[in-house]
Design brief:
alpha/beta; Rossmann fold; 6-stranded parallel beta sheet; 6 strands; about 15% strand; globular; Glycosyl transferase family 28 C-terminal domain-containing protein; Glyco_trans_28_C; UDP-GlcNAc_transferase
Length: about 170
Amino acid sequence: MGDRERRTVFVTVGTTCFDALVKAVDSPQVKEALLEKGYTDLIIQMGRGTYVPSKVSGDGTLQVDYFTFSPSIADYIRDASLVISHAGSGSIFETLRHGKPLIVVVNEDLMDNHQSELAEELATRKHLFCASPQTLGETIQEMDIETLNPYVPGDAKPVVSLINKFFGFPDD
């Protein structure tokens, strides 16, 4: 078993409750899609959520583990081959900074959703993939990580103007 390369998928909801994302990741369709892409382990940070994912893993299935909070999710992000995240800007930029492939899952239950605009803009620029809980399985099946553009943190200008646009500040 030890000779198999581990390819971990790390799922994070930050400090929020986003059961729809945890449920989606726990679904047979999503697990199947991840397996087909060659991922071996699934680690879910479930935040304040109440939905508990199933840990059952047999042969040919993902090894699943989960926890609520960790003082530093940076380690999990660093070790991951793929990150599936809620649309919080902290989680997004942390993942992009580590140069990890990222699927941002937008929480459609949030009424005031600046977050989805940020995620969609970064998806348009091909820094990440964007999904909803309903389309996550499809997104995993169809994604081609090779098509992603590395995010270069040094170039803050586009991001700054994006943030200014959200908050209605003039762009200098």
